[in-house]
Structure to design on (307 residues):
């Protein structure tokens, strides 16, 4: 093999290696730029969300007049987003906001446990008395049972004409498996200290004493609920106690006629009418923010790699 041919081969190999390295550098540069673009796009949308969607920036200068907004969605129960443990610190922070002229609570809930509803209701009354701020409730699709229990602590209640409203009652559910156990040939063995410790055991027959006890307890809880409604809606209720506290529910339009709510309208209507502004600072809505960030990342990847 001649020297010229060897030199040509060597030159070709060197050129190929250099070209490969240049391509590798270009790929790494493009990858870095893509990640930078992804990060910038996410941050831009995050700031746009905070500065635009809420109507009041978390970072920029706040408007002189704004409302503290809290959104409550789902069942009222321990361990849920709509629970006293989660909500009370958020309420306290909102009431302590000196720039907030009032509190608006946007609720979409079928209710939940009477204990959690009662705690939140009582906390609202305490905060109102301490901070002297008006509380306006806005009902969305559902404002029933425990959610309505919470709502009557507000000064004004707004609903849509179609919002399911009311259901001022108490329900306790269970099952009995006594006959099933017999058919299966299973003997249940329970050992207690205290004659009534096994009350409500679904594998034991229900006695008249059990039924009397259950009715007594739920009647007491119902009375507490009804009294909270009468206190919160004092001078506004138009129906009879038998009608209002039967556990039935109504449309928002019918609830207005019964005095269970004050006005028909949406969130913006309530803010403008009660406080003269639609600027607001939202509290406790970190979940929607994280969903926004996640969706922006997914959208950016789709745009970069699949379009």
């Amino acid at each position: 093999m001649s020297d010229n041919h060897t030199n040509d081969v060597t030159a070709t190999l060197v050129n190929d290696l250099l070209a490969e390295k240049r391509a590798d550098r270009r790929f790494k540069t493009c990858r870095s730029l893509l990640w930078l673009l992804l990060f910038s796009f996410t941050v831009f949308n995050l700031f746009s969300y905070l500065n635009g969607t809420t109507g009041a920036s978390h970072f920029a200068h706040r408007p002189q007049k704004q409302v503290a907004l809290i959104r409550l969605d789902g069942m009222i129960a321990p361990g849920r987003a709509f629970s006293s443990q989660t909500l009370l610190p958020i309420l306290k922070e909102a009431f302590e906001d000196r720039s907030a002229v009032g509190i608006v609570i946007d609720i979409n809930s079928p209710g939940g446990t009477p204990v959690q509803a009662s705690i939140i209701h009582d906390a609202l009354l305490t905060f109102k008395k301490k901070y002297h701020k008006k509380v306006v409730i806005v009902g969305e699709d559902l404002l029933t049972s425990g959610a309505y229990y919470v709502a009557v602590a507000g000064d004004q209640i707004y609903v849509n004409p179609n919002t399911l409203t009311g259901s001022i009652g108490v329900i306790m559910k269970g099952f009995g498996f006594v006959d099933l156990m017999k058919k299966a040939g299973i003997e249940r063995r329970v050992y207690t200290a205290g004659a009534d410790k096994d009350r409500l055991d679904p594998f034991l027959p229900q006695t008249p004493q059990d039924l009397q006890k259950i009715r007594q307890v739920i009647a007491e809880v119902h009375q507490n609920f009804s009294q909270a409604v009468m206190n919160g809606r004092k001078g506004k209720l138009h129906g009879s106690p038998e009608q209002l506290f039967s556990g039935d529910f109504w449309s928002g339009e019918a609830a207005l006629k019964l005095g269970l709510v004050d006005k028909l309208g949406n969130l913006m209507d309530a803010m403008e009418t009660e406080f003269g502004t639609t600027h607001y600072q939202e509290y406790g809505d970190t979940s929607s923010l994280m969903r926004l960030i996640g969706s922006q990342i997914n959208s950016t990847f789709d745009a970069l790699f699949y379009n």
Summary: The two ends are 51 Å apart (CA to CA).
